[in-house]
Write a structure and sequence with these properties.
The chain is α/β, with parallel strands linked by helices and 308 residues long. It has helices at 13-22, 29-41, 55-66, 81-84, 90-102, 108-115, 125-131, 149-161, 192-196, 208-218, 224-237, 252-264, 272-277, 279-282, 286-291, 294-301, and strands spanning 45-48, 69-74, 86-88, 121-123, 137-142, 163-166, 170-173, 179-184, 199-202. It has a 5-stranded parallel sheet with strand order 2-5-8-1-9, with helices on both faces. A two-stranded antiparallel sheet has the order 3-4. InterPro entries: AAA+_ATPase, ATPase_dyneun-rel_AAA, CbbQ/NirQ/NorQ/GpvN, P-loop_NTPase.
């Protein structure tokens, strides 16, 4: 595989904002500052926030901006160290040992050392990130809150020192420091030891102008008037008093998909009937779809200055 040519780290926060925008990611200044510092200080960045606010998309955008390969470790309940770090190729090791036995090798200690060579190592995401050639990788540890506490403890060495310990080989240190992002939907609180090793940013739903910019960029077929309606409607859905009616507010991905659907339906102006017909794009739970009644849609579509 050809090594990638490194793109320089943007020289300022404003330059980073523009670089991210060039690949379709619209970061506000607070988020851009957190990312800029993570790059400059070579520290992991922990992003927490509701699902759908752009945490995972940021890692993909950074991969493009920095011309680095993206390596993703998707966390889940029961995730084991061997799935995150490495495994030995047991079948190949066994074949090696049988071949040595058939040749009458008497030095079994030597045979055992041979089967723990690099060629029998199956690299998983953490080890891949540490051993990625220059310029290094972007490692996304996605939804770390879904893993358990022992797995958090296992991550500490990597997060603190960009290294891991493999009993049969020893300590493996980063060839080139990976840009590391951890994301959490806050289904549970992470241990303080993890947080102390990371920079931290709470990623909230975008403000109207940022969401509008995202819709414009991702749905070029939408008219300006339709893009504005989408951004304003979804923004008001997430605000009080409407937000209390729903279990989960639509994320940015839902805004974009809804805009695409409206364009596909040749929608010129969003009305309550269209909202009702397409509610399953904005919401993924039956109760939330039912909660978006026609009367609520009428209220949401009113100009902001007519709100009660």
């Amino acid at each position: 595989m050809n090594s990638m040519i490194a793109a320089p780290v943007p020289v300022s926060i404003d330059a980073l904002v523009l670089a991210l925008q060039s690949v379709g990611y619209f970061a506000d200044r607070r988020l851009a500052t957190a990312v800029f510092l993570a790059l400059k200080l070579q520290r992991p960045l922990l992003l927490e926030g509701e699902p759908g606010v752009g945490k995972t998309a940021l890692a993909k955008a950074l991969s493009e901006v920095l011309s680095r390969s993206l390596i993703r470790l998707q966390c889940y309940d029961g995730l084991e160290q061997r799935e995150a770090l490495y495994e030995w190729n047991y079948a190949a090791q066994l074949l090696h040992m049988r071949a040595a036995e058939s040749k009458g090798s008497a030095d079994m200690a030597q045979v055992e050392r041979e089967v723990y060579q690099d060629r029998y190592l199956i690299r998983r995401p953490l080890l891949q990130a540490l051993q990625a050639p220059a310029p290094g990788a972007v490692l996304l540890i996605d939804e770390v809150d879904r893993a358990d506490e022992p797995f958090e403890a296992f991550l500490l060495e990597y997060l603190g020192e960009y290294q891991v310990s493999i009993p049969e080989i020893g300590t493996v240190r980063a060839t080139a420091t990976p840009v590391t992002l951890l994301t959490s939907n806050r289904t549970r609180d992470l241990h303080d030891a993890v947080k102390r090793r990371c920079l931290y940013h709470w990623l909230d739903y975008p403000e109207r102008e940022r969401e509008l910019a995202i819709v414009r960029a991702q749905v070029p077929g939408a008219s300006e008037a339709l893009a504005i309606q989408v951004a304003e409607f979804v923004g008001r859905l997430r605000s009080q008093p409407f937000a209390n009616a729903f279990q989960r507010a639509p994320g940015i991905a839902e805004s974009v998909e809804w805009a695409k659907a409206l364009v596909a339906l040749d929608t010129i102006v969003v009305d309550p009937e269209v909202v009702s017909d397409t509610a399953g794009i904005l919401f993924k739970q039956r109760e939330d779809v039912a909660a978006l009644t026609r009367d609520m849609a009428v209220q949401l579509l009113q100009p902001a200055d007519t709100d009660a």
